[in-house]
Amino acid sequence: MKEQRKSMGLLETAKMNGLEPHAWLTDVLKRLPSWPEDRLNELLPFPSYRFSDHPAQ
Hints:
Layout: H1 2-16, H2 21-31
Helix pairs in contact: 1-2
């Protein structure tokens, strides 16, 4: 139950920050296997998030 609340919180945060929650989660799950652990904060659903098909500049 606690994990479910955390997941829902991340999805709500994505929504509040103008991201489509399903698209954000799908993109994050595709990236995770090869994403460096010291850069995990870049995957959080904040306005600065960049989808993988739109590289950061």
